[in-house]
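Lab channel / #folding
Pinned by the channel admin:
"Please post every new chain as: sequence first, then the structure tokens as a reply. Keep commentary short and put observations after the output so the thread stays searchable."

First post following the new format, from NK:
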Amino acid sequence: LCRVSGVSADETEYRAELGTTIRVGRVNSVTLSPRGDLITVIPISGGIRWYSISGKQVGSACLEGYDKAVVSPDGKLALFYSYRDPSNTRVAFVDPTGKLIWQHTVAGAVWCATAGKDERGPVMAIGTGRGYIYVFRVSEGRRRCVRWRVPGAVVSIDFDRASESVFHGTWHDSFVGRCTLRGRRLWRIESTTASLQYVEVLPEKNRLFVISEPNVRGRAREYTVFTAGGKILREGVLGPEVGSRIIHSPNGDFICRGFDKLIVHKEKRVRENHAVLYDSTGAVVWEKGSLIMPVLPVLVTKRGSVLVSDGNKSLYFISRSGEI
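Reply from TO:
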């Protein structure tokens, strides 16, 4: 665990304090509860484990036949599903003690899932390859499900910050859209037909970040930043380089693109890890990386500082001015 805090008034300088170390093996994801008191780990091997901030394991759950899961922000409910598996279209809801609360069969293989929480408790949603979106509210005494259909396979889904509506991205047909939790369409924008649309709600300013992943060889990935109302704020190309990946700031004002740069010298070829930071206008703020100083972006702060890794055991910040 690492606590990061700003040490300057403009939040361009940061201090990192290393804390508890938890050995968890290889993981698909690690999330921290909003209150910062519960850590949820989803290992590559499957299942879910919950830890306290002190590193003590306080819960676990594992269901045979399921390889992915999402967890509510408060850590009190997990949804298990079998990713893109048409032979298992059942979703399962489990609490931190491992108790199975409910199972439900959906129409089509599950392609994506997300979890949120509002004043009534946990709310979860999934999207299927047959174009269905399901919204679930599950607790000890309540089982509620609402579903509707959209064009194309639902490849990504996310709640708005208040968990009052659902953003979704589809493929064949390719759309980005927003619906209420009862399925009423708020807006929908058609995108490139051969691209899979991956949506992510930004933590600040209620913006939507979308990556269009082409299903055709030779085409580069594209990204778009939307307002919650569907207006395009910015769009660009990820680049054709091997290993291209993109990380954005919580407000979407800064975007850092990591990529592998091929260096050829005297008939020798070597790939270097580089990163480039863009501001809200799309202008390049800095580019970093070399053979002796690999730069792999980890996160971007709202002020444009970037936490990077050297690909080994070191983490360091690069400020907006380019200072390490």
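NK: The mean pLDDT is 88.
TO: also worth noting, The first strand starts at residue 2 and ends at 6.
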